[in-house]
From TrEMBL, chain A:
Family stated for the protein in its record: Belongs to the actin family. ARP4 subfamily.
One GO term (biological process): DNA repair
Alphabetical UniProt keywords: Activator, Chromatin regulator, DNA damage, DNA repair, Nucleus, Transcription, Transcription regulation
GO terms for cellular component: nucleus
Assembly, per entry: Component of the NuA4 histone acetyltransferase complex, of the INO80 chromatin remodeling complex, and of the SWR1 chromatin remodeling complex.
Superkingdom as given in the UniProt entry: Eukaryota
Name this protein carries in UniProt: Actin-related protein 4
Source organism of this protein record: Penicillium cosmopolitanum
Location in or out of the cell: Nucleus
SMART domains: ACTIN
SUPFAM superfamilies assigned to the protein according to its UniProt record, in alphabetical order: Actin-like ATPase domain
TrEMBL record, chain B:
InterPro entries membership: DAMP1_SANT-like (IPR032563), Homeodomain-like_sf (IPR009057), SANT/Myb (IPR001005), Swc4/Dmap1 (IPR027109)
Organism the protein comes from: Penicillium cosmopolitanum
Main subcellular location of this protein, as a coarse class: nucleus
Coiled-coil residue windows: 253-287
Protein known as: SWR1-complex protein 4
Length: 460, 580
């Protein structure tokens, strides 16, 4: 094929309008240009807050992890159920996600760059108007939201996009729908295993079925809490998690031996907040999840035979430990509530049977018409970073087969890690670059005419 | 490779210890591109492990270089499917006819209001129809009812006007996707409109998809009927109308319940069903093979339909003909069975036809064809006049057949044999004594042992004669035997009478053996008497029929041979009794 020829428009139905796709989540916020295969900007949704010279300062993105500033505390604008709680900070975090990487840095205002300094009283008034340029003044914006996002939150979102960012066109899509699009399906049962939530979204013809949307808090953070409980129970002595920033040097030790490392200590007045340490520990646990944690493949109960082959892990504060069957146990309670490791001190409440994944799926399917249930079961889409736990999809398939022995069950989960992590962003990228989609945008004009309520009418 | 050697010299490297294989020199010829010959020669025999040719930018193909660079521009466009005139930018190839591109800054402008400051440059693409606008299609929905129409046709106790409107709006919004409509259906009756009504009858009743469908279909059908009365409807419209009118929500609900049952089967039920399906598959496949086998069987037994009329069989001539054909068919069947299944399979239809119908078709069979052939052979004079075609054969009567010497053999033996030989064979009996007796009888009749003129008829008569002679001889034998028996019995009776007379004065006590003997004798006489009678009647009967047969036989044959044969049969019986 001659590369100087553009692909025929009809071949893929694409028509790029250089839109930005923003997929905010509890743990990370993804942003990038539509038409690309991965988000260019992936930042943590957490932000840091600290005092410096008497003024409160904020730190966004990965910058937070670079330096443990004195008294830095970590917050998340999004609540545990995935709905935004702190709108001001959510707006700032989201803006940071695209403004830091995507929207071109505009040249400084010549009046402010120091080259044309003139006394402030001479500043012409009309020039002031030009200075508050909106960050998205020339890019349409597609945002995603969870399926159970309340109408108020949706209206608030479009308000921010239109008024604060000045986007010419906006659309709010459900992340379940987008994840289905990312796997090329218009109808699917999307199972999203996120950080704070697992959600099951039935999608029919590119629209969610509201009565079938279910979510439960047994996400990646819950798995972390289970790991913490496991460490606490460890014998002969509990394992403590030491995040990387507290270790200045370490030497490798044999498994089971006490760690040999030099720790950094911070004086009380310069130490970061406990929430900062918790977030850093979470990063360590994420590594643990990636390397050690595994889903019991079934079909028998986990509480059966003795320990399997062991794996070692050495990044827990220069510690090396051997984990046998325990590495299955931490995920098992996603499927079987009886396998949960009890931890009365944990802030995470113990799960109930109704919150386990099979029950959630069952409840979700009960909420949709019986005629489309078999079709949904044969189009199960798994997305979300926590679904990358080793052996998860196989187990899920197993569970679905036992739940529904009759109809054909087909779980489609992209093997590519980034496709799994950014499933809904990729779907948004596809959607926003479709030529047929451009009639769906809510334009600024429509917003001004109808008000924020239009998002309820248009983004169904 | 002088250069390599030079280098070795210069670097004080030892000379090549072993001469390089000759083959390798040939291979070396290929020189990668982008390296001069001299430099390449310096490399020696061992090529470096890294690629030494740089990847050069190849540039555009020469042909394309001659073309002008086609420009792409970020150009605004409006979407015809939108009503608000949103203008977005996308990259588009610059049209050849277009004038100088507008300055960069203006192109990036997003013109929300649709007013354009740049002028004609950008209006041009805007006027084009947007490619994807054509995909903006809506489902075809019935016309909305007016207030009048609603009150006249569409009133329903279960549905308020407002809820109906809400339903119709949803239907239009979701393009008749009922799954979505049912999912999003959240009708809340307005509290202020009917304050007294909704206290009792609020829309707490959950509308199921079937309810909504029933309502919608009713409305759609009614609107269709208002638009076109059923008499004026086109066929498709009428069908549609009927379908919508016949929608039964209860049935649909039942169906869904069944579907849910089917979906929520347990693993055991699924397994059982799979097993049953497997069984069913097996049964059907068995049945298939059974049917095909049976069909094959039927095709073998196929009964051809008789087409000819039966009139031709009503005369005696026709009947005899039928008999002939049946016989032949029988013969042919027998022969085929001897031939084995192969022969039968080869011409099943031809084999079956004569047995069943014996109709005109049957004459096509081989035996009759043979007969026809023999007819032509036997009768050379008539040969050309009687072509061996079927209708001619059929017309031959019995008289004609005998005239032409046509014969039908029970079994045609292989090979050629003389008729006289066959006649000769008859004179040879099993035992020599018998043969001599036969010869004696023939001599007595003045018939030569070897026939002078062994025509068909003569042979037949000779055969009969020999048979009669045989019968006679047999009869003579039997009669001799009987006579001797009679003599013995008479002698024994005389003996007994003599004894009885002697013992008349003495005791009357009977000898235990006597009654037995007596009964034996009575039995024998009784049988003899009856046989004599039978012989008499048989003889009388036989006389009429056989008279002419015996022209060459003895004059007194008629009675005797018959009675003799009967006698022999009966005497056999009596012999048996005696033996018992």
């Amino acid at each position: 094929m001659n590369p100087s020829n553009p692909p025929q428009a009809a071949e893929y139905g694409g028509d790029e309008v250089s839109a930005i796709v923003l997929d905010p989540g509890y743990s990370t916020t993804r942003a990038g240009f539509a038409g690309e295969d991965a988000p260019k900007s992936v930042i943590p949704t957490y932000y840091g807050k600290y005092n410096y010279e008497g003024k409160e300062r904020l730190v966004f993105g990965d910058n937070m992890f670079v330096q443990p500033r004195a008294g830095i505390s970590v917050h998340n604008p999004i609540g545990k159920d995935g709905i935004v709680e702190d709108w001001d900070m959510a707006e700032k975090v989201w803006e940071y996600s695209f403004a830091s990487r995507l929207t071109a840095t505009k040249p400084d205002n010549p009046f402010h760059n120091g080259l044309n300094d003139i006394s402030s009283e001479e500043l012409p008034a009309e020039m002031e108007v030009e200075t508050d340029e909106k960050p998205l003044a020339d890019t349409p914006l597609l945002m995603s939201e969870p399926g159970w996002n309340p109408a108020k939150a949706r209206e608030k979102t479009i308000e921010i996009a239109m008024e604060k960012w000045g986007t010419p066109a906006f659309y709010l899509a459900r992340n379940g729908v987008l994840a289905a699009f990312a796997s090329g399906k218009a109808s699917a049962l999307v199972i999203d295993i996120g950080a704070s939530n697992i959600s099951v979204t039935p999608v029919h013809d590119g629209m969610i079925l509201k009565r079938g949307v279910q979510h439960s808090p047994l996400g990646g953070d819950y798995i972390s809490s289970q790991i913490r409980a496991l460490f606490k129970k460890n014998s002969p002595q509990p394992i403590t998690i030491t995040p990387h920033y507290l270790i200045s040097s370490k030497t490798a030790v044999e498994a089971g031996q006490p760690p040999q490392a030099n720790y950094r200590t911070f004086p009380a007045d310069r130490a970061p907040d406990a929430s900062y340490r918790a977030l850093q520990e979470e990063r360590t646990l994420a590594e643990f999840k990636e390397c050690v944690v595994q889903t019991w493949p079934g079909p028998n109960k986990l509480s059966g035979p003795g320990p399997r082959e062991s794996q070692t892990k050495n990044s827990l504060a220069a510690r090396r430990a051997v984990f046998g069957v325990d590495r299955f146990r931490v995920v098992e309670s996603l499927f079987d509530v009886k396998a949960a490791i009890p931890d009365p001190d944990s802030p995470v409440p113990a799960p109930t049977q109704a919150q386990t994944l099979p029950e959630v799926i069952k409840a979700s399917l009960a909420g949709v018409d019986v005629d489309i249930r078999p079709h949904l079961l044969s189009n199960v889409v798994v997305t979300g970073a926590s679904s990358l736990v080793y052996g998860f999809t196989e187990r899920l398939n197993q569970e679905l087969m036992t739940l529904f022995p009759g109809p054909r069950v087909r779980v489609s989960a992209p093997g590519n890690t980034s496709e799994r992590r950014f499933g809904s962003w990729i779907g948004g990228s596809i959607l926003a670059s479709l030529g047929t989609f451009h009639q769906m945008w809510i334009s600024k004009k429509e917003y001004e005419e109808h008000g924020a309520n239009i998002v309820e009418k248009r983004c169904k | 490779m002088a250069a390599a050697a030079d280098v070795r010299d210069m670097l004080d490297l030892p000379a090549e210890s072993q001469p390089r294989p000759h083959k390798k020199q040939k291979v070396v010829e290929k020189r990668p591109e982008g390296i001069t010959r001299e430099l390449y020669a310096l490399l020696g025999e061992r090529a470096p492990p890294i690629a030494i040719n740089e990847n050069k930018y190849k540039g555009r193909p020469k042909l394309l270089n001659k073309l002008r660079v086609r420009q792409w521009r970020m150009s605004p466009f409006a979407n015809g499917a939108r009503s608000d005139g949103l203008v977005l930018n996308h990259w588009q190839r610059k049209h050849e006819g277009a004038r100088q591109p507008a300055p960069e800054g203006t192109q990036m402008d997003v013109d929300v209001d649709g007013t354009k400051e740049e002028g004609k440059e950008d209006t041009k693409p805007l006027e084009q129809e947007y490619t994807f606008a054509k995909y903006n299609v809506k489902a075809q929905l019935p016309r909305r009812y007016t207030d009048d129409e609603y009150s006249r046709h569409l009133r329903n106790n279960e549905w308020t006007r407002e809820e109906t409107d809400y339903l119709m709006d949803l239907v239009a919004e979701y393009d008749l996707r009922w799954v979505l409509i049912a999912d999003r259906y959240e009708y809340q009756p307005r509290m202020d409109s009917e304050p007294e009504g909704n206290a009792i009858v609020p829309a707490k009743t959950v509308r199921t998809m079937e309810h909504m469908k029933a309502r919608y279909y009713f409305i759609a059908a009614t609107m269709l009927a208002i638009e076109h009365p059923p008499s004026e409807m086109s066929e498709a419209e009428f069908e549609w109308h009927e379908k919508m009118l016949k929608f039964d929500p209860n049935r649909e609900r039942d169906r869904k319940e069944l579907a849910a049952l089917q979906l929520n089967r347990t693993a055991d039920e699924v397994r059982e069903e799979a097993m049953l399906l497997e069984e069913l598959k097996r049964i059907t496949s068995n049945e298939q093979s059974f049917i095909s086998e049976r069909r094959e069987l039927y095709s073998r037994l196929e009964v051809p339909v008789s087409v000819g009329n039966t009139a031709m069989y009503q005369s005696s001539q026709g009947l005899s003909q039928l008999l002939q054909t049946l016989l032949q068919a029988d013969k042919s069947k027998k022969r085929r069975s001897i031939l084995g299944p192969d022969g039968a399979v080869a011409s099943p239809a031809a084999g079956q036809t004569p047995t069943q119908a014996g109709g005109p078709v049957s004459r096509g069979d081989t035996p009759s064809a043979n007969a026809a052939a023999s007819a032509t052979n036997n009768n050379n004079k008539k040969g050309p006049a009687v072509p061996p075609t079927l209708p001619v054969v059929r017309q031959l009567t019995a008289a004609e057949e005998s005239r032409y010497g046509i014969q039908h053999h029970e079994r045609v033996t292989a090979g050629v044999q003389f008729r006289s030989d066959r006649a000769q064979k008859l004179t040879q009996a099993k035992s020599n004594v018998q043969t001599q007796k036969l010869a004696g009888a023939l001599a007595e009749l003045e018939i030569p042992v070897r026939l002078f003129m062994p025509t068909e008829r003569v042979c037949k008569d000779f055969e009969k004669l020999i048979q009669s002679v045989n019968v006679l001889l047999e009869a003579r034998k039997v009669s001799e035997k009987v006579e001797s028996e009679i003599r013995v019995l008479e002698a024994s009776r005389a003996e007994r009478e003599r004894k009885a007379r002697e013992a008349a004065g003495e005791t009357t006590a009977a000898d235990p053996e006597n009654p037995e003997v007596k009964t034996e004798a009575e039995d024998g006489t009784g049988v003899l008497g009856s046989t004599a009678e039978a012989a008499g009647s048989g003889g009388e009967k036989g006389e009429g029929g056989d008279g002419e047969n015996a022209e060459e036989a003895a004059k007194d044959d008629g009675n005797h041979k018959r009675s003799a044969s009967v006698l022999s049969a009966v005497s056999d019986k009596s012999n048996k009794r005696q033996r018992r």
